Structures are given as structure tokens and as C-alpha cells.
């Protein structure tokens, strides 16, 4: 199939605009160990709006009161600079759709996204029902959602392992009932690009009315092909791509938003002008924010947003770039927002300077919040000669997380040496207000502090993950610690930044404990399903 | 283009075996901040042989005496369980080819890989020469290499941005002179799969004799398409794929070896039986080894080898997998070697048990090396209830790095508290044998220890990167620290494991200093080019 054939075959071939449907907060947030609270989800959603995505899938409202609240908050508050579509996910059950509607109804542009599997392997083994029943459920769900609103998306889950003829029947029904977007998911990350393209081409043949709605694709990266399959989908006519920042999501994750965006932007002239509406200069910052809040690191060699994605190491490459950048660069690092990390403030900067620097970065902070931010800023500025935009980003994110009710670290002391075991003492304020002290002699200083905290709070959670990173370079860099703990099967993550790594670790750990504790108090939904994904 | 058409068009269409050409030690090692010594490169090469790759590109011998020595050592020592082809990279210069030959000549199956750019952008701006000269250089280089050995690979660098007709002329010349493998690199990661496939199809038309040699592809991941482009190459007839473990390499890196391998293994029946000879059960361990020695972390959601690549988080997915694994799993975690991390030894295990456990893991350790390993094992076993295979892997890797001459940490002491600045004292043995002490009051305990080390050794290197990870889960996990420092423009990385994070940080830092110091003492090659990549 030649290139012009490919890019002209789709339904909306005349339309060159590809919609970006971001599922960082739904499929991405389903990654093991990620447990964002409402304030964190709102911060990510606001950054996604700034990035210019078209649709934010904010969550799966039926799954928990916490998820419902986050979707509702995002639907009510995210509208700047332009209101994105806010989508809520729902199975075909009436209760799911009702919950999704209640959660998104206050958005300027609400959407309900409902789904059911069309693959026999899912129908027989998981749903334990029949193809006829699946058709009935799809019809009823779309019809029910349409009673509430115009914008309804339908996904035949596990489509790529389904018989295309049956998927076509179900898609036809969804369109008959008024679905305005049809999303074809490669749920298990099994498709190959040429195969996915052939599947979609066949679907267009079987369902000509697909040309009257938006075709969407949702690909997983289990075989490393999520971006390639999404791109094949776009060439076949899809005009919406579902993706997540840093490619997070179930198992190997979703198609990476930044790769899709920069692939189209860079090769736009060669694919008939296909492009997204994303402001690529916000990509690096969005990636850092999501990495920091989820605790999921980005590999240094990750395309587009990895620390070294634009670094030239070999002599021949460096030589070439010095002579003429285009010899080894197909993109300019500034187009993805990887400008030099310039110094913005110093220890003598005042409250006004901080306010203005934050405003320029898109954080509107005033009153008590500005006082708190200024206090944290001064602590850092006293230790660090130059405070950069990346330091401020990290601090602001850190501040937002101060609000989780639960435990608070009051003070700690540690002695460590290669000649005797380390000893730690801590004091933690309990949720009830009482001050509890604990001490421990452990194998390492951080181990000793965490164990002392366990003693103080009287819990022994499982430590599932522990990571330390540097926000900026150099000896006086802010250290950033991400911790994931598990209590009664519920995980909680905590992050903290400080120039003192033990302090950052202790604060991150206490926060993770608070989050996990809060989650153990949340009711589960009737089916006992905390979340899900097409 | 239909699937059968695609997979049958290639030169070696009848041959279903795809050769794996691993460039972890050459293109991968060119990643910023990676600085492996000979012992580490040998360890990776031995693991690659165990993994069953067909070709190991061991380095670029002309670039430094260290690179030459590493390639030569690998050529001489890696032959178990079967001798892989050992390749050395060379520009078209006579001196490059001579150095490559000297370095690989002792291998059972040596190869010289030579390259020159065919894109006008490289010819004009970097080489500052003419197309005629490029043809002459390609001809002379292949002819010169053929005087030494039969197995010669030629790459037209930046091929995907070259005029296909000119690339065809150069490829024709290389084949005339006896090149046995022609590798088409997408040097800057610019190609799209359908475009790359069309480029290769046209090349076959223009150079029918390409059917008599092995066609290879080498793709970079700048737009997230390295695996998809490599796969498109295979479908177009390539029977060698150049790739790197964890996808490391220049900028966004190379095609990820594990993704290519598992893509073909999983979809083999649907691509006419195309497959590699790799033992997939060694993939997870190879990935961990490379991540540990390079200090490059693997994202939790990285396909195939990420910690969560096989984790099911959402309720619906968990429910499905419990009913029938294939509902959400297309691969079994055990096929990539992600077996449960079982306990292998405890504190009462003896020297024989350690020897046997290591032997089962493929480490043959005896005599003094076993004594040292046993001593380190006992230190860990005293602090950790259960020692797992992953702990032993980390320990063995750590031991191998004990051999870098330079600085040695003798002891340290740190006091840290939230109520006063942390204070550290250290003693470091200098390369000359003298013991130097240093102390520092810093912003954080690790910062204080590193600064105290600087004081002791009298250097103030730039700290480019600092990472801490846990080898296994839980409170008593081994902590693993990776540090990258820069001295006089030369970077050095160091890693260390310990249950004490400050000890691991201090040891990793001292090692990084030793490596960077050693590199500043190495001469650079005449052109001042420390390394390079097609």
C-alpha cells in the first residue's frame, strides 16, 4: 500500500487534525503503585489543558468515591486556557453510566466513554455470556448515555483479538444509537501495524457509517508497538489517538503521548499535513510533572522526554552537530520545552519575585499558599546557590501534596557509620493529633529511619518501591524520593523533595503511609473492582 | 500491501531465521554517562553469549586503548555456550580497519563492520567531500577489510535521509568488493515504517545482488519507532536486526533487543515463522545486568523487561486473568525469565551452597574469587533474612567492579538530623597508597559524605547523575546506587550495592571517581573522537 493511498483512505481523510485523548489519569493511573489523590490529579489535568490535549479521560467514576470526586473536580475546575472535553469511563452497566454522568456533567464539554469486549476469549471466559448479549448491552449502554449528553464514545474492548465481522456488528449498533466516537482498542498489545491497519480498513468496508463519526485508536505497548500501531491507525483514518504521558498504563503501558505528538509534528509534511493541536513546548514539563507525581521514572534514553534524548555522545556525532545541527538532529530540543534550565531566583529573591516566577510557569499562587511556598523556597535557597525553574516545579508539586490528612513527620535524628550499625530516632504526629516517638537500629540509615517511623505509627507495611532522583544537576541538587508502600493490599505512593535525602525519604514515606491508610478506609464498589481498562 | 506479500518479498525470504546483532557494547555504550571498563564489558558479552545473540559488536577499537583492549578481551574469551561473531567497528580509514582487525582477529568468528555516510547532509556538512569520494572510500575500505577476513559488514550511514539511488550505488560497490552483510541504518531515527519498507523494497530493485548477502537494519528511537521500523525491515527481507539491551544507545537509543525478540517469538506464526535464536528466558537477567552496570534504569512500564510489564492492576483485568490468563496475557512472564524471585540462600548457607547457587546462575567462581564472594555474601546474609538469586546477581556484579585501580573508601561516619546540618567524616585510600581523611558539614547526609570524599581526594568533580534503587522488595532490600561524575570533560560511572544506602552511595561515588580519573589518563585518538555510531 503506497503512502498516499494509506493517508487518504480514512473516513475523515479531508480532516488533517488528529485529536489527542489523554488517558494518563485513567489507564495511566491504573499502573501498579500509582495512587494519585484529587489534588494531584487536578494538577495533572490542569497541565494537560495547558499542553492542549483535546480530551482528558479523568477516571472511572463508579470504581470508588475517590475516583468519582477526582473526575468531578476536574470536570468543574479545568477550563484554562480552553476547556478540554472531560471523559468518564463506564462499563455498559446502568450504574456505571449514571456515575460517569454525575461526575462529568458539570464540565463545559462532558463525554461518557462506555465499553464492552467483543473477543470470544473475553465473552466466554470473563463475561461468561453470549455475543447476542454483548450486542444488547452495547445498544442499551449507548442509548442510556445518549439520554444524558450528545458526546458518547464506545469501545469494543479487545477488538484486535475479535472477529472483525462481529466487532463491525457491535460498532454498527453503537453508531445507530448515537455514539459519536468509536475507539478500537488493542487491549493486550498484540497487534502488528500492518495487521491493525488491515483490521481498520476492513471495518470501514463493513461499517460505511464509520465515516460519519470519529474513529479512535487505543494501543498498548506489550510488544513495543503502541506508537507504531497508533500511527498505523491514523494513516488508516483514525482522527483520535488515546495515549498517556510517558507511556504509562496497564502492564507495558499505552502509546506515549509525546512520541505520537512529535512523530506527527516532525513528519507532518510527509503524511499529508496530519497533526495534533498540542503545544509541544509543554511536553517536557508535563512529562516531569507526571513522573514526579506518579513516582514512575523516565528512562534517560526515552524518546522525546528522556534526559539524553537530545544528547550527542559520540565524537563523530558531536563533530557533526557542531558543524551543522541537522546532521544528527531531526528535532530541536526547545520545541519540546527542554530549554536550558536557567536560574530564576536566588537567596535574596523576595515574595514578589517568587510570585512572578511561579506565575510565568503557570502556577497562580497567592495569600496563605504563597506564604507557605515562600517559606519552602527560602529553606531551599539558603542551601542552594541558584534556584531554577525545575526546582520551583518540584517544590510546587511537593507543596500540593501537603494536604493529605494522616501522619506528619515532626523531627528525626540518624547516626550512620561504616564501623557500627546506624541508629535512628523519629517523632511522628498521628492522625488523631498525638505525638508518637520511635527508634530503631537498622542495616542502613534510611532503613533505620523508616523502621523507626513504623515503630512510631505501629504499622509494618510492605515497601514495594523506593527511588531517589536528583531534580537538577550538581552537588547541591534537590533530592527527590518516591516511595510505594502496601497496607492490606492497598498501595500508597509518596514523594518529597529536599536537599537532605534522609529528610526527603522520611517525608515521602510518611506521605505514602497516609495515602495507603486513606485508601484502606475507602469502600470498594459492589463488584469489588477498584478500576479497569479497555 | 498484504501480509503474505510483505513477508515474502525479501532476498532471503526462504530463510526464516533473523540474526540478532547486539550493539549494547558499542552504540549502547556511547550513551552519555555510561563508562564501562573491560571487566564489565566482558561480563555483559558473556551474558549476551548465554542469551544466544548471533553477533556482538564489542566496540570501536580505534577510538581508545581502553576500547581496543575490551574488544580484544571479548574476542579472546567469549565462546560459551557457542562462539558468537565478534564485530569491531571502523570508519573507512585504513588505520580504523587495521585496529578493528587486530582487536577481533583472535575471535573464533571475527567480523569487521565499516561505514560511511551516503546522505548529502552528512557528505556536504560533516565529511565535506563529494559523492565520488564516498564511493571510493567505501570500495577501498571493504577491499582492505577483505584482505584480513571473510566476514565484512558495510553500512551506508544516514541511509534513510539519503537518495536511494546513490545509496544503491554505494551498496553495489560494497557487495562487489565482498561485503557479506549490508546494514541500512536509520541513524537519526527519522524513518516511518511504511517509508522504510518502501526504501528497502526500492533498494532490492536497484541492487538485485542484495539477495546474495544478508540485509541488516539499524534503527534509532527518536520518534518512538525503532522497533516498528526494524520489524518493517524484517518484513521487507532483512535477516539481521541491530539492537541493544533495554534499547540504550545514542540519544533515544536503538531498537530494544528484548522487544524485537519477543515480538517475533509471540507473532511468529503470523509472520511466516520468522524468529531469532535467542533464549528468551535469559532476557530479564540480561536487562538487569545491563541496567546495573550502565546505571541506566528501566522504566517500570518498559515492554518485556519493565517491573510492571506483566502486572495486572485494574480490577477487571485481575478478574479476567484469574478466570483465564489469556484474557489479558499474550506472553507468559516465565518465558522472559521473570520467574518468582525465589529465596536461594540464608545466613547458615556455606561456601559450597554459594558455589552451587552461583554455578546454577552461570557464574563459575572458585578459589580466591569464591572467598571474596563468600565474605560479601555473609555480610549481606547477616543483615537480610533471605538472600535471593537477584541479590546474588547484584553482589556478583558488584564484586567484578572491585578491580578498578584508583581510590578506595576505608571508612565513613555521618550524623544527620532535622534539627541541625548533617556532618560527615571519611577516610579514602589514594591511588598512591596514602590514607586521606576529609570532613564536611553539608545540606544532606549523602551530600556531606560526597563532599567529605572530595575534600579527602582534593577534587571537585561535577555530579551528573545520582540514582538509588532497590534490588529486591521489602525493608531489608539491598540498595543499589549509581553515580555519574565528570572530571575534565570525561565522565565516569560507579555502582555499588549495600543494605546501607550511605555506604552504597559512598562506594559508588569513589568508584565513579576512579573510572573518571582513569579516563582522563587515556589518550584520545588522532581525530579527537572518543567514539561514534552509524
Oligomer type: homodimer
Using the CA coordinates, give the radius of gyration of chain A.
Answer: 24 Å
Q: Helix- and strand-based class of chain A?
A: alpha/beta
Number of strands of chain A: 16
Total helical segments of chain A: 17
Distance between the termini of chain A: 30 Å
Q: Helical percent range of chain A?
A: 25-40%
Most extensive protein-chain contact, per-chain counts: A-B, 130 and 131 residues
Q: Can you give a write-up of this model?
A:
The structure is a homodimer of 534-residue chains. The first copy, chain A, has 534 residues and is of the alpha/beta class. In chain A, 40% of the residues lie in helices and 19% in strands. Chain A is built from 17 helices and 16 strands. Chain A has helices spanning 3-8, 38-51, 65-77, 94-104, 120-127, 131-148, 164-176, 193-206, 226-235, 257-267, 283-294, 315-323, 351-360, 367-383, 389-400, 445-457, 501-521, and strands spanning 19-22, 55-59, 85-90, 110-117, 152-157, 181-186, 214-219, 240-243, 343-346, 386-388, 408-417, 423-429, 435-441, 462-470, 479-487, 490-498. In chain A, the strands form four sheets. Chain A has an eight-stranded parallel barrel with strand order 1-2-3-4-5-6-7-8, surrounded by eight helices. Chain A has a three-stranded antiparallel beta sheet with strand order 11-12-13. Chain A has a three-stranded antiparallel beta sheet with strand order 14-15-16. In chain A, a hairpin with a 5-residue loop joins strand 11 and strand 12 (423-429). Mean pLDDT of chain A is 86; it is low at 1-8 and 524-533. Chains A and B meet through helix 5, helix 8, helix 9, helix 10 and helix 12 of A and helix 5, helix 8, helix 9, helix 10 and helix 12 of B. Strand 11 of chain A pairs antiparallel with strand 11 (408-417) of chain B, so a sheet runs across the interface.
